[in-house]
Amino acid sequence: MKRLDRRGFITNAATSVAGIVLPRRASVNRASYIAQSEYSIIEQVRKFQLLDAYCTADPKMDDAKKFGIEQMFTGKPMIWSKWTPDEFIQANDDMLALMKKYPNQVIGQISINPHYQKESLEEIDRCADLGMVGSRLYYQVKINDPLYFPIIEKFIDLNMIIFMHGEAQIGVGGYRMKYDVGRPFTISTPEDFVDAAVRYPEGMFQFAHIGGGGDWEYMCKAFREHPNIYVDTGGSNNAGGMIDFAVEYLGEDRIFFGTDNSYYQGVGKILAADLTDRQKQKIFFDNYNRVLTKGGYNMD
Ligand SMILES: [Zn+2]
């Protein structure tokens, strides 16, 4: 059978309906197709100031430039290993090298593993002295485990946000593990974040990427009453209404724009939300910059 390209398909379809009254819906769809093709996401986003609160090394600098992202807070993706001091020090050194390569554009986030308490606390000091800001934490230990307490206290002293991965989906964490999806028991659930946030009301916590998979409705509902827990919009998942839902539950001040290197998805889901330009600007830039201001790490 002859394969049709898109143009061929449209011509063919047009021929096949010749002489037949075109269904009303088809003409509407065609009009909206044309309208969409004239929509420029770049043009739309250019009226906002952007700061990426969740970028993963290596950032796509061409895309960041195209979308006008001024700063990217960047960390290493987790390696599924024990994450020894040698490994997390290397990960941080890689971030420091990126910061040198892209000064003021890439800001590294600090990786540690609380199983190595002393080395982790020393590493936070070393990285903070060298200009890294905030944490990039994963699954080795739950955020409300006492092993994390000295680490959280250190980030509080530095006035830095504690940015950590968690998950909320069937098959993750505690009782939900009966549907095993291959995640470690030590992964933090929204309830674990809430526990840590209540224990440390002066701490600032960021739950990684509501757009990164999992039950984002559950996440937003769990954090509703906890003003020191923030979320970012990073991740490639673009479920309709996600941003609107997050604003409804968390308000417009606790949501950060993040890409996790999915630039079109990251920007598009904010632009598509039913929000005012002022609200979008808060998410794109102001909210995260306000958190940075607390430690003097903000953009001028
Ligand atoms: Zn992630």
Structure write-up:
With 300 residues, this protein is α/β, with parallel strands linked by helices. It has two domains: 6-35, no CATH class; 48-293, Alpha-Beta Barrel (TIM Barrel). It contains twelve helices and seven strands. The radius of gyration is 22 Å and the shape is globular. A four-stranded parallel sheet has the order 4-5-6-7. The site of zinc ion (ZN) has 5 residues, from loops. Residues 88-287 form the Amidohydrolase-related domain. It comes from Membranihabitans marinus. It holds the Pfam family Amidohydro_2.
SSE pattern: HHHEHEHEHHEHEHEHEHH
- Small molecules held by this entry: zinc ion
**Average residue-wise pLDDT:** 88
For the secondary structure, the number of strands is 7
Radius of gyration: 22 Å
CATH structural architecture of the largest domain: Alpha-Beta Barrel
* Domain tally: 2
The named CATH superfamily of the largest domain = Metal-dependent hydrolases
The CATH topology of the largest domain turns out to be: TIM Barrel
Arrangement of strands in the largest sheet:
4-5-6-7
Distance between the termini: 62 Å
Top CATH class of the largest domain: Alpha Beta
Helix content class: 40-55%
Q: What share of residues are in beta strands?
A: 5-15%
What's the story with the biggest beta sheet? 4 strands, parallel
pLDDT < 50 runs, ≥5 residues: 1-26
Structural class: alpha/beta
